[in-house]
Amino acid sequence: MPAVKLTKNELKTQKDSLKRFKRYLPTLILKKQQLQMVIRQVEQKIKDVETRRDEVYHLLESWISVFGENLNLMKYIKIKSIVKDTGNIAGVDIPVFSDLEFQFVEYNLFVMPLWVDAGLEVLKKMASFDAEIEVLSEQHSLLGQELRITTQRVNLFEKVKIPETASNIRKIQIYLGDQQTAAVVRGKMAKNKIMKESKV
């Protein structure tokens, strides 16, 4: 830590810094709380989507015996793209799941069993849930990084900058007070000396 200058200008600079730190700290604390709340919401959303996906999977279990016809339905599902929007939470740009686009894969309706269309729809729904979970996990990761940075800043202000600046202000005020007292004492001593000399 560099030595603080013991001047009136430095006192003003330190007081301004302290005022700025104290004004900025509540904003950081609010941002930290908002991020924590949103992270909990995202975690809950992930659990909800996983639950819906599991429900669809359990419905799918009844089809598993039908799938046993050595028919690989996965080759008929090709993901074209994950459609994402962009959201902003507490100054953090996050991806927001919008849709999952599939590429149409042709198959012969006369050769395939009747249940294939319904089976493909269920698999598409499962893939959409997985894509949504992936995007939510990305949100969680980005918000978690921002929370770490914000927490570090809160700690920096609370535990380092504000106490350090307050300590610097105290040092400068004590030094300036001592200088002022010394100046008064020197002035009185000089006055007494002048008075003694004028009497002689």
Description of the molecule:
Helices cover 71% and strands 12% of the residues. The chain is an alpha+beta fold and 200 residues long. It has a single domain (8-194), classed as Helix Hairpins. Strands 1-2 form a two-stranded antiparallel ribbon. A hairpin with a 2-residue loop joins strand 1 (78-89) and strand 2. Helix 1 (8-61) packs antiparallel against helix 3. It is rod-shaped, with a radius of gyration of 35 Å. The model has no long low-confidence stretch (mean pLDDT 87).
How helical, in percent, are the residues?
over 70%
Q: What sort of overall outline do the alpha carbons produce when their principal axes are compared?
A: rod-shaped
How much is the radius of gyration in Å? 35 Å
Helix tally equals 3
- How big a fraction of the residues is strand? 5-15%
Order of helices and strands: HHEEH
Q: Given this structure, which CATH class is correct?
A: Mainly Alpha
The major pleated sheet works out as: 2 strands, antiparallel
| Beta-strand segment tally | 2
Strand order of the largest sheet: 1-2
Q: Assign the CATH topology.
A: Helix Hairpins
**What is the structural class?**
alpha+beta
Compute the separation of the termini in Å. 55 Å
- The total number of structural domains is 1
Mean pLDDT across the residues is 87
CATH architecture: Orthogonal Bundle
Any low-confidence stretches, pLDDT <50, length ≥5?
Answer: none
